[in-house]
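Teaching assistant's notes for section 4

Start the section by putting this record on the projector. Ask students to predict, before seeing the second block, whether Fe-S oxidoreductase will look compact or extended. Collect guesses on the board.
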Amino acid sequence: MTGPLQIVLGTISALFLIVAVVFAYRAVRAMVRIIRTGQPDATRNGPVGPRLKTLAVESLGHTRMLKWSAIGAAHWFVFIGFYGLFLTLVEAFGEVWNPAFHLPLIGEWSLWNLFADVIGAGTVLGILYLIYRRQKDHPRRQGRTSRFAGSNEGRGYFVEAVVLTVGTCILLIRGLKVSSGLTEAPTWSHPVSSLLATVLPDSPDLLSVVAFVKIVVSLAWLVVVSRILNMGVAWHRFSAFFNIYWKRNDDGSVALGPLQPMTSNGKPIDFEDPGEDDVFGRGKIEDFTWKGMLDFTTCTECGRCQSQCPAWNTGKPLSPKMVIMDLRDHLYAKAPYLLGEKTASETAPDYDVLKPSDEQVWASGYARIEGTNDAQAHRPLVGTLEEGGVIDPDVLWSCTNCGACVEQCPVDIEHVDHIEDMRRYQVLIESNFPSEAGVMLRNLENRGNPWGVSPSTREDWIKDMDFEVRMADGPLPYDVEYLFWVGCAGAIDDRAKKVTKAVAELLHTAGVEFAVLGSGETCSGDPARRMGNEFVFQMMAQENVETLNGVFEGRVPGTRKIVTTCPHCFNSLGREYPQVGGEYEVVHHTQLLSQLVEEGRLTPVTPIDRKVTYHDPCFLGRHNKVYTPPREILDSVQGLSTQEMHRCKDRGFCCGAGGARMWMEEKIGKRINVERTEEALGLDPDVISTACPFCITMLSDALTSKKQNGEAAEHVEVLDVSQILLRSMAPVGTPGTEHGAEVGTADDDVAGTGSAATGHGQA
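Reveal the predicted structure now:
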C-alpha cells in the first residue's frame, strides 16, 4: 500500500527524525554539563532500593499529584499516555510508509489495542481538562491569586497543544485502521476506535497523512524544547524522574524537618576551622549543588507551591515558584560563563535602567535580565532592582519556612533548603538582614534567648506550681522518665508559660516523673538557624548537647527522653541535634498527653460545651507529620464540638512566625496571622486551639486586634490543647469552671477555668 504520497512523507519523516535526535542529544549533553558545574553532594547516591521504590510510587502512583484529585487524575492519563504510548510513535513511522503497518511482535495483540485505546482517550480527555483548568485559573480571571501568575503561559499552551494534537492523532489513526479495514483485532479491544470509525472514511492515504502529522508535531516539540533548556513545563517530563530519585530523604519523605548542615565542596563546614576556600551558603548561582540545579531545571511552573504559600497569599513578593524560575533562568543564561565558553568583563554594568517586566511584576517588581550577556555574569544572587539582583531581599526574607511549597511540589523541589542557603550567605558573608533580627541574634549570643531576659527568669513559672518540680542537677535519677525541655517561650512569654504550667500539672497528675533544666537551659538555636546564622546555631547546639549528654549520662538509647511544648525545639532537638552528636528520643507534649489519655492515666471528666477549631503548627504538622495526637486529645474531651478549617493538616496555613519571622517586622501586604485568624473566625468558634507557643502568640495578637475592632466576640479565646485537656480534668462542679474573669488574668488559672468563655452558651 506504499505509493508516492507515502514515499514523500516517509522520507521527510526520516530526515526530520535525524535532525530532532541531533538537537535532543546536544540539548541533553549541554544540560548535563551545566548541572555538573554545581557543587558536589554525595548524600544523594543511595541506598538504591528505597530510592527506586520511591521513584516508582511517586511517578506511577502519582501520589503527590493526586493530592489534587481531579487534576492529578487528568495528569496521570497524560503522563501514562506520553510514555505508555511511545510505541504508537514508532508505529507511526511505519504507517507513513505503509498504512497497514503493525508493530513487530506486538502486532494486533488485543491487550495492547485496549491499552492504547483507553489511554489514548484518557490522554485527550485529560489534557482537555488541564487546558480547561489553566483557563479557569488564568491570571486574566484571578489576577495575583492564580497559581499560574508569573508562569510562562505561552510555553504551557504549546505543550498542551502538542499533547492534544498527538493524542487526537493516535485515536484518528486507530479509527482509520478500523474504517479502512486494516485491522483484524476484535471490536472489544478497540472500543473508542470503533466508535470513531463510524464517522471516518475508508482512506489509507489519510491514515498516512495523520501519522505524518503525529510525527511532525512530536519531533517539532522535541526540537523546540531542545532549543529552550529552561522550558521546565516540557523538560520535567524527563528530569522529574531523576529529581525524585535524588530527593533529600531516601525514605521517600519530603525535604522538611531538619535543615541540612552547611556544606562546601560536598563536605560539612567545620566552623571551628573552616577551609580557606569554603563557600558559606549560596552567594552565586554556581554555589548551588548539582541537585539544586536539577531542582531549578525540573520546575513545571504549575504553581501549586505558590497557591499554598502564606507569604504570597498575603501580598508578599515571595512566590516559591518564581524563586525557582528566576534561579533557573539565571543559571541557563549564565551557563556559557560557567562552562568557560565566554569570559565576563572586569566591571559590572549599570542596572539602573531596569524596569519591571510583565512576568516579574507579579513578584518582586524588577525585571529579569533577558539572554546571555555580561549583565548575567555579574548579577548578585540576592539584590535590589538597582543592584540587578536575581532574588530581591524582600522575597528572601518573606519566607516563614512553613514548608507548604515543599509539601505540595509534585517533583520534589527543595525550596526551603535553597532559600535558607541564600539566607546563610546574606547573614554570614554580607551581614545583610533585617535589623530587628539582628537584635534577636545578639540576645541569643549574650543571654541565651531571643528576648534578651536574664536566664534566671526561666525558673519563675515553677514558683506558681503547688507541687515540687524537680531540677536537673547532674545526671538524672533513673526514676525520672522525661526531661521537660521548657523552651524560651515556655519559660519567658506569659501566654506560653500558662501552657508550660498546664503540661507540668498534667504530667504530675498522670504520675509521670520529669525534671527541668531551669536556668541551665538555653535556646535550641532554631531562630538563628532559620534566619541563616548557622554559626550561632552550631555554637548553641553544641552547648546544649554537652548539657543534655551530662543529664543523660549513663543512659542507653531509648531512655534519653525529652518532652517539649515547642514544635521548633521538638524539630531541633530531635532531628537537627543528631548532626552535632546529640541523639535523644524527643516527643511533643501532644504526643505524650495523647498516650497518657489512651492509657487511662489522664481522664477528662468535665464536659466542655465549646466549638473548637484546631490550627496545625507548621513545625509540628508538615515538618514532622504530627497531625493525629492533638486531635485525639480534643476528641477525648466530652462536649467539645470540633470543626476543621479549610486549610488544615498538610495544607495548613502558617501563623507567620516560622523562619525567624517571629522577630521580624511584617511590613508588606496583609499580616499572615490576621489571615489565619480570620479563617478560624469564619467558623464561629469559641476556642481556636493550637500546640505551639509561637502560634499562640501570633493568633492571640490577631484575635485581640479583631476584638478591638468589633470583628470577634469577646468570649473567643486561643488555647493550647493541653489547656483544654486540663480544663476538662477539673471535677464537675469545681468552683470557677462556669463563671469568672477573663482568661489569663490569674497566674494559677493556666487552664482558663475562670474564663468568661466557660460560661458561653449557657442559659
